[in-house]
Amino acid sequence: MVTAYDYSSAVHVDSAGIDLILVGDSAAMVAHGHDNTLPISLDLMLQHCRAVVRGAPRPLIVGDLPFGSYEASPAQAVEPAVRLVKEGGVDAVKMEGGAPSRVSAAKAIVEAGIAVMGHVGLTPQAISVLGGFRAQGKTVDGALKVVEAALALQEAGCFAVVLECVPSPVAAAATQALQIPTIGIGAGSLCSGQVLVYHDLLGMFQSPNHSKVTPKFCKQFGNAGAVITKALTEYREHVEARSFPDAACTPSRCPARTLMTSPMCCRRWASMGGLRLPRLPRRPPPTMQRNYWTESRRR
Ligand SMILES: Nc1nc(=O)c2c([nH]1)NC[C@@H]1CN(c3ccc(C(=O)N[C@@H](CCC(=O)O)C(=O)O)cc3)CN21
Ligand SMILES: CC(C)C(=O)C(=O)O
Ligand SMILES: [Mg+2]
Q1: Average pLDDT for residues 49-56, to the nearest whole number?
Q2: In what order do the strands lie in the sheet with 20-23?
Q3: What's the complex ipTM?
Q4: What mean pLDDT comes out for the span 126-133?
Q5: Is the CB–ligand 2 distance for residue 21 below 6 Å?
Q6: 270 vs 245, 255, 265, 276, CA distance in Å?
Q7: What residue spans carry the region label Disordered (predicted)?
Q8: Which helix (H) or strand (E) holds 6?
Q9: Reduced to 3 states, what is the DSSP secondary structure of residue 122?
Q10: pLDDT in tens, 90-101
């Protein structure tokens, strides 16, 4: 399982043959630049879900219920779940926590006809009570709490449970105790499956701002961030040197000597043999402009 938040990333994840996509509330952090997952709204999650659904016809798509949309009561939880499925187009929803009230909420959503994925261990929406993105289940009591919460969610009808940031033996014990699959993140290799955030595994989440919120457990399977920065730098340099666009990237001039904007007309003209007109003398590069825009933005 990998997260996706937009059409293009969903196409990538589908093309790679990955079974499940999570439209995670981690979008708040990687797509919107917040320091935690709390600020994202249900409306924004719905937009992300719709974009992902358009890009990924094959994988099972799970949408995160955002913070604040489902905690008040089991009855309240059904409404955002229905919206994620009905308006967002997802196949299932995920909700955090294993306290009795959350288990009841999961049960109510399942009874409404919506498949629910649980999420225990480090539950980022509870950052306020956890005191940060801290590993969970590190004491005997904590480990028992994680396994018992997972069992309760299974009992409530969840079809799978995410185990986030718990010691490997705790995740292994939960996986053995449960009949439904466990999906680990920072929880060792003995879960039924694994999930990672798209930008983390591709090396695209590298803003210095975010070093404190990037999980240390993530392995980078690629360095797309460096590839993107290199390509953008080359584009800028070529534009500044006026070596882009070259003739191959520019339609030839219209025989009627009007400014040509229709590529179709240009292509037809080129296929007829075309007419090479002498190049116009170059205008000097507008060196003032760059300073003007950067200066005005700083103000
Ligand atoms: N980009 C991104 N990747 C994620 O995996 C992710 C998000 N965002 N946002 C939502 C949550 C937050 N996550 C996090 C963030 C940080 C740590 C982290 O720093 N963990 C420490 C443990 C620290 C401790 O035990 O006290 C680690 O060493 O992994 C873990 C999970 C996982 N999720
Ligand atoms: C880290 C995963 C499990 C998640 O909930 C998210 O990306 O929002
Ligand atoms: Mg999440």
Answers
A1: 98
A2: 2-3, 20-23, 60-64, 92-94, 115-121, 160-164, 182-185, 193-194
A3: 0.95
A4: 97
A5: no
A6: 18, 10, 9, 10
A7: 277-299
A8: none
A9: coil
A10: 999 999 999 999
Average pLDDT for the chain:
89
pTM equals: 0.86
Other CB atoms within 10 A of residue 2 CB: 23
Model pLDDT for residues 250-285, shown as the tens digit of each residue: 766 555 555 555 555 555 556 666 555 556 666 655
Domains and CATH numbers, the chain: 2-219 (3.20.20.60), 227-298 (no CATH)
Catalytic member of 79, 87, 111, 164:
164
Amino acid present at 19: D
Residue 96 amino acid letter = E
User: What angle in degrees, to the nearest 10, is found between the helix axes of 74-86 and 42-55?
Assistant: 40
